[in-house]
Write a structure and sequence with these properties.
Elements (H helix, E strand, L loop, with lengths): L10 E5 L11 E6 L7 E2 L2 H10 L2 E7 L4 H14 L8 E6 L4 H9 L4 E6 L2 E7 L3 H13 L2
Parallel strand pairs: 3-5, 4-5
Antiparallel strand pairs: 1-2, 4-6, 6-7
């Protein structure tokens, strides 16, 4: 059984690290209605489910030894906890640990960001700056 992580039920599960079923995270504690989420660490199977569980999703695909991934890590984390983006679920996948993500990353440079709205892909691109990431978030927020 999948732990409930949907913010529409008055809160969310604080995401830490670990592996649990199709989702790469361990539920630690329930956080009531803070109005924002932390990053959900997931895997290939979890991604397929989560893009349908949330109306808007931004996914960051990362790779080991990626300097830009590391540079954008704190920025991505700040956006994930910013109330301005409370309507967006932030997911992170490691290409090193997920075959489908690895196949994608063999064709794209990391960090690769993908936006989904209502389960459909809206935008995907390799991003290098905070401004590019912010622009993708604003485009996702404006998408109906």
């Amino acid at each position: 059984m999948r732990p409930e992580i949907s913010p529409q039920h008055g809160g969310y599960w604080r995401v830490l690290a670990g592996i649990g079923g199709a989702y790469s995270f361990t539920v630690n504690e329930w956080i009531p209605s803070l109005g924002f989420m932390e990053i959900i660490e997931t895997n290939d199977a979890g991604l397929r489910q989560l893009v349908h569980d949330y109306s808007k999703v931004l996914v960051k695909f990362t790779a080991t030894n990626c300097a830009i991934c590391e540079h954008l890590r704190p920025i991505f984390e700040l956006f994930a906890t910013n109330r301005a983006y409370a309507d967006i679920a932030f997911l992170r996948l490691s290409a090193d640990q997920n075959p489908v993500a690895k196949q994608l990353m063999d064709q794209q440079a990391a960090p690769f960001f993908v936006s989904y709205c209502q389960g459909r892909l809206v935008h995907c691109d390799t991003l290098y700056t905070e401004q590019q990431l912010r622009a993708q978030l604003h485009a996702l927020q404006a998408h109906l």
